[in-house]
Write a structure and sequence with these properties.
A_deaminase_dom; 48% helix; ADE; eight-stranded parallel beta sheet; 12% strand; alpha/beta; binds zinc ion; adenine deaminase activity; hydrolase; globular; TIM Barrel; EC 3.5.4.2
Length: 334
């Protein structure tokens, strides 16, 4: 039977660190001699039911301590890709946060080489094509972002672009103008989280100052009619993460999510999982959830899937994009 979950799709907003499931966290902790402040996977799973942003961030960054070696990163990415494949993902553009690892003494090369090992064999193992996007933590300094970009230069053959994530308010995109200009000069694609908690002005800045091609989240753009018109006119993709918005309280309940009105406005929106181990579902689960809670019908699910490939960085391989789009059209729900 074909479930809506299995609709072929691309995932464009996925933090690899956010795919760390309790079982793998414990396995890596044991292997690396890291003490976790939880008795077992059940207790850790209960901690994943955090109630606010700060407890999420504490858990998220705390658990990263188990990721030490290149093999750890390979296993993490491999586990995500296996799950994603089961949920219809055919192409994944994966974020990682180098500073979250270099700050605790794990070299950037270890992280990139470990992830790349899983990504390079993903097509053969899982039938999922991949790209890697390096994100800067926006609550760190612009200098730290620039140092990270410079340190990444030997690994750029593994990296398609740069992004900007973590706590948004008080850290406007313009803070990173220089590092984005430098990334552009290196031929990297550009995306940024904007308009999740931050105001519509941050979305404009990401477009005008950083020159991003996609906005990650962009929910609050809906407060600004002129901005919505521009996003529609310029076909700027927005990578929405509805389950994440509920867990981090950008919306109270999924039933209140603006996805339907964003689609009705003609925005090029996609649906993604963000940090799926923590937010209650992978991208196929998310498609299922918006179908159930928001009445997103089968043809609209197909539109979301189509958008995901249109918004992806597959410009270097239009044949592949066309093949994926044909899979979307050929998919039968029943
Ligand atoms: Zn995100």
């Amino acid at each position: 039977m074909h479930l809506p979950e299995a609709l072929p799709k691309a995932e464009l907003h996925l933090h690899i660190e956010g795919t760390l499931e309790p079982e793998l966290a414990f396995a890596l902790a044991a292997r690396n001699g890291v003490d976790l402040p939880y008795a077992d996977t059940e207790e850790l799973r209960a901690a994943y039911l955090f109630s606010d942003l700060q407890s999420f961030l504490d858990l998220y960054y705390g658990l990263m301590a188990v990721l030490r070696t290149a093999d750890d990163f390979t296993e993490l990415a491999d586990a995500y890709l296996a799950r994603a494949a089961r949920q219809g993902v055919r192409h994944a553009e994966i974020f990682f946060d180098p500073q979250a690892h270099t700050e605790r003494g794990v070299p950037l090369g270890t992280v990139v080489e470990g992830l790349a090992r899983a990504l390079d064999r993903s097509e053969e193992r899982h039938g999922v094509s991949t790209q890697l996007i390096m994100c800067f933590l926006r609550d760190r300094s612009a200098e730290s972002a620039m140092e990270t970009l410079r340190a990444a230069e030997p690994y750029l053959h593994h990296i398609v672009g740069v992004g900007l994530d973590s706590a948004e308010v008080g850290h406007p995109p313009s803070k990173f103008a220089e590092v984005y200009a430098a990334a552009g000069a290196l031929g990297l694609r550009k995306v940024a989280h904007a308009g999740e908690e931050g105001p519509p002005a941050y979305v404009r800045e990401a477009l005008d100052v950083l020159g991003v091609e996609r906005i990650d989240h962009g929910l609050r753009a809906m407060e600004d009619g002129e901005l919505v018109e521009r996003l529609v006119r310029e076909r700027v993709p927005l990578t929405l993460c509805p389950l994440s918005n509920v867990r981090l309280r950008a919306v109270d309940v999924l039933e209140d999510h603006p996805l339907p009105s964003m689609m009705a406005a003609g925005l090029l929106v996609t649906v993604n999982s963000d940090d799926p181990a923590y937010f209650g579902g992978y991208v196929g689960d998310t498609f299922h959830a918006v179908h159930e809670a928001l009445g997103i019908g089968q043809e609209q699910l197909r539109e979301l899937a189509r958008n995901s490939f249109l918004a992806s960085f597959l410009d270097h391989d239009e044949d592949r994009r066309a093949r994926y789009l044909a899979e979307v059209e050929a998919y039968t729900f029943d």
